[in-house]
Amino acid sequence: MNEIIQAFFQAIELIITLDPSVMEITLRSLIISFSATLIATVIAIPLGFLIQIHEFYGKKMVINLVQTLYALPTVIVGLFVFVFISRAGPFGFLRLLFTPTAMIIAQTILILPIMTGLTISALTGVDPTIRDTIRSLGANTRQYLGLLVREARFAIIAAIMLGFSRAISEVGAAIMIGGNTQTSAFWTSTRVLTTAISLETSMGNIEFSMALGIILLSIALVVNLVMMRVQQR
Amino acid sequence: MEKRSIFLVVVVLVAALLICGCTQSEVAATEPPQTLRIATTTSLYDTGLLDALTPAFEQEHNAVVQIVSAGTGKALEYGQRGDVDILMVHDRARENTFLEEGYGINRRVFAYNYFVIVGPESDPAGIRGLQPEEAFTTLREKGIEGTEGVVFVSRGDDSGTHGKEKAIWQSAGYEYAADVQQSGEYYIEAGSGMGATLVMANEKQAYTLSDIGTYLAYQGDLTIVPVVDEGDILLNIYSVMEINPAMHPGVNTSIAQDWINYMVSDDVQQQIAEFGVESYGRPLFNAAAGKADTLGIPAEECATPLA
Amino acid sequence: MIEIAGISKQFGVKEVLREVNATVQEGEIFAIIGPSGSGKSTLLRIINLLEQPTGGRVLFDGTDIHAAADQSLALRRSMGMVFQKPVVFSTTVFENVAAGLRIRGMSKAAIRERVEAVLEVIGLADRAEQGARTLSGGEMQRVAIARVLVTDPALLLMDEPTANLDPLSTETIEDLIRTINREYGTTLLIATHDLLQGQRLADRMGVMIDGTFAQVGLPHEIFSAPRTRGVARFVGMENIIRGRISACEQGLATVDAGGRQVMAPTPLLVGESVSLCIRPEDVTLFLPGTEAGSARNVFGGTVQAIKALGPFRHVGVECGFSLAALATWKAVEELGLHAGSEVQVAFKASAVHVVRDEER
Asked: The whole model's pTM is what?
């Protein structure tokens, strides 16, 4: 028990003294997951729109599929991305394996379904009378979509937040695609919060893991608080 | 209100992104560093040897060395797929196959040390001082009998150390898959790197096979001790090789060859021989230079620079 | 202003509107009344270009609105629609009202001026910066009306604007509707299932039954002279008696109904199947054997049931057909009526409104 408390205080020390490796890993984690979320947002929201506002054959099935993929296991994404970007794979010439770029791709794929699905739900949640009202007010297509987004904005923000949470907390794909490498260059390294925690814990470096764990939890907490505030509106 | 806080987060992250991008591009402005990708056995990485050796190389060759730490099996797989430029492994038999199949070239032995069987101080299996094969045989028998405290943690990850363990079982007269794996609750396959396996063995107060280097690097956190450390079969030979550019045209062969020559250079050989003395009181590795006979390998392969 | 010509609409196999014809004059309030599900909303949605008709045309100042695809946005911007469910955008009251103007790309200053003026009209000027979602239903509906009013529509469509509101809010909204019509000269087309609301508001009304206008006319015409059995029932004619014209002389017909001969004025010819509409207040009751006055139709019958109805008594009589009569409680007491009493019913020929039977 003493050992745990000691490790905890050492962890706190690592955080408040802004230990360079802790900070570097944290920053990298944030950048990778933030980029993935950004890309996924750019894809998922228009995609959600397309699926939601169009009537087409098999729409229900598409939505079902998207919702099934909410639970997409991270290691499956890892495997999938690995076989495509490994040198022997179709995109091997890009030399992406073990790069943060590849991790961004993997995380983007991982969170696309949940963000698309939640965008669809967000739009479905907009009262049909609101839609009629917007059209009835004489909105053109662009204005219609703009106002629809405004109506669904809280739910869409929640979708983005959830995507980010999933991205930053996943470990399976990050370790398979990133390889948990640490180099002298910031952007050549692929060690992020989750993979570092996994590695350092297995190597018995508890206080370092704990520091990273506290940071990861804090990020999740901040995201959750923002989300709660948004949803209370 | 929450709009503002989201905005703030976005601004901070974008700023961070820009800062990193800028620092990157500043370096890039002088001359873009080459990236050398190395897949290495965990024992080399976990001891900290590579971390100690890379900065000088990076400076000298304007390179960034990226090390993917995996077991020898996984490292060979990465090599076979062309995902790395260099392999640093320790499993002669599988290396030979790898070379014969044409995936790797220019193998050089740069270091060696010995494996040890570590276990609880109390040695419940009573194997202290035995030959490795005898020790394994005893462990298996007592383990199957269910003798209190007899547990063996295997790497179980197809690594070089795991390969060595299998070789010992074979030498002791057992068929690994049939006679050892799942032969009883005493035999645990960890599926992890050397460091993690040592931590696990320590937690369970079990026996395991480790290279001496990693064991020494972790000794401070461990209560398990070496119980068997003598026997020809325990020799552990580390090689470095590059991935054949004929198989994978994308690999960076020139920097890879620089790395191989760096590893066998007199300076580095010296550093290897001294690595760990300061922290652990004894070296973790032996330099390979001039030890072709001891290691039983061709002289030109032994710490000889590439032509 | 609006000419609805032969509009029909099918959703799948379901026929919602069939051959709807009507004309709405500029500046009038036209009420579409009819029971729920009769197709009122669909008609308004077609006029507002939210739905395409399956057949027929809607002419807006002579333009076929569904044919002019390039003008549809401009056409829609010249009308406004208020929906049954009070909905507001999740922004402030001000922004809600401004939405239509922003869509039309109006300048900020002009928007401010107009929105403030309209908020004054709907009485929410002091709540401009409040979140619209925090308003009550009635207030939300006022915002919804302001939202279209501010765009100065030539035609205002309202789909059951008070159906979800309490009586007080309903009154406020009705006042607002009258004000809009009077002050701005806006043409209004209001769908309502509330007959009395239609009567209170409308210059003219159309009774929609089963997807078509059964009758279009002035409110008093519709109340006094329903043209079909369905309209008669909808406007509250309690006694609707089936019969057949057996004789006809100078506009006065003899109608066979339940074995009785009922005299009634009608231009219809002998042999026609008709329904006779008689208001209960036009039926008087006498005891058997007493003088029944000058009424042309006097029949003997049996009292079935007597129900209290405010200061009146509602008396159901079986006299070959079922007939309801309305009498003061005093009259009922004096006659000593109770269920099973023998009684005479009397009503004038002119109290009978004859409708040709169009239903099977």
From this structure: 0.77
